[in-house]
Amino acid sequence: MEGVWSARDTSPSDIEAALRELLRKRHEEEAAYVPARVLNLVVVVDREWKGEIENRLDNVGRYHPSRTILCAVEEGRTSIDANASITDDSERTGMTLGWERVEVDVGPQHVKALDSIVDPLVVTDLATVVWAPHRHYEAVDSLLKLSQVVLLDSVDEPEPELAVRRAAGFERQAYVVDLAWLRSTPWRERVAAIFDPPRFREAVNRITAVTVRHHPSSVVAASLLVGWLATRLGWEPGRLARHGDTLHGRAKARRQEVEIHLETVSEMSVPGLEGITIGMDSGASFSFDRGPGGLTATRRGRDGKEQQFTALGASRGESGILGEGIRQALLRDPTYGPALEAAEKMLT
């Protein structure tokens, strides 16, 4: 079931009043109606591309925000138009759970002071997440007054150096959820699993080379993966130098230097990582690469012999990454900040 309201040339107070009236009517119509109350998501987009973002939001599965406020920026607009709707899950037994969505059309002149428009619309006492997939960073700066979490995707930034600087700037003011970081989760899990058995734990001190293969837009994701390794293992990474499509550099480990290579794979069709190879001082190596149904793991011994198997269920896929980002907004990952700091050292 759905309730809808819309108005032209409106104001934030009128939108807030309309939301209250929609909720009142739903409670009258359905005694078992309960509005979801977990988090607010404020999304700032270019109006001409908002359909793409709406499609992504519609596919987040069970991680729907309680209230989504989508601010669409339109060139030449001077007034505010808005619509609000309530969608509920009437198939639940004994309870009807509802979600609210507000769309506000604004002009460029509203962006710097977007907090004054959004403030009456968020549900108080809930965590508020701000996301600007079309890089309206002035809006994010304004909305930081209301938000506890910044959702971003470093692949949206064309320059990796600027991407890590911007993420670091936001990270000093709020909790950051970076979709580029989340894409590396299955890779981090599998790499950690290699060295988890007691007989392999000492081997982390014998790593001499790390090569990460990545989508052309995912330099930051690759550097975050290396940054995670560096901070977990006590390496001191140096700045990476570019040679063609590859970034090369070194990190100082406790016993030796570790060679670092970030290699672009132009044939990749989706953002993220294609593979990682970890080389040891004995000549042995461990590799993970994308494959059907998961990651293809390869262990190469010092004698050159290889063993191969598939690590199943390695990724949620690109369609599930936004839902995971919304879920992570309610959690706290203590490893992202240090990894980001290491990536910033390597890229800037």
Which helices and strands, and how do they pair?
Elements (H helix, E strand, L loop, with lengths): L1 E6 L4 H18 L3 E3 L3 E8 L3 H9 L8 E7 L7 E9 L6 E11 L7 H5 L8 E5 L5 H7 L5 E4 L7 H12 L3 E4 H4 L2 H10 L12 E8 L4 H15 L2 E2 L3 E3 L2 E7 L4 E8 L8 E8 L4 E7 L2 E7 L5 E7 L5 H11 L7 H12 L1
Helix pairs in contact: 5-10, 8-10
Can you walk me through this structure?
The protein is an alpha/beta fold. The protein is built from 10 helices and 18 strands. The strands form 2 sheets. Strands 1, 2, 3, 4, 5, 6, 7, 8 and 9 form a 9-stranded mixed sheet that branches. Strand 13 (246-252) and strand 14 (257-264) form a beta hairpin. Helix 5 packs antiparallel against helix 10 and helix 8 packs across helix 10 (336-347). The N and C termini lie far apart (51 Å). 39% of the residues are buried. The model has no long low-confidence stretch (mean pLDDT 92).
CATH topology of the largest domain: Dihydrodipicolinate Reductase, domain 2
By DSSP (H or I, 4+ residues per run), the number of helices equals: 10
The class by helix and strand makeup works out as alpha/beta
Number of E strands: 18
Morphology: elongated
Q: What top-tier CATH class of the largest domain fits best?
A: Alpha Beta
Q: How many angstroms separate the termini?
A: 51 Å
Radius of gyration of CA atoms, rounded to a whole number: 23 Å
CATH architecture of the largest domain: 2-Layer Sandwich
What about the largest sheet?
A: 9 strands, mixed
Order of helices and strands: EHEEHEEEHEHEHEHHEHEEEEEEEEHH
In total, the number of domains comes to: 2
Any low-confidence stretches, pLDDT <50, length ≥5? none
The average pLDDT score comes to: 92
Our estimate of the beta-strand percent is 25-35%
Q: What proportion of the residues is helical, as a percent range?
A: 25-40%
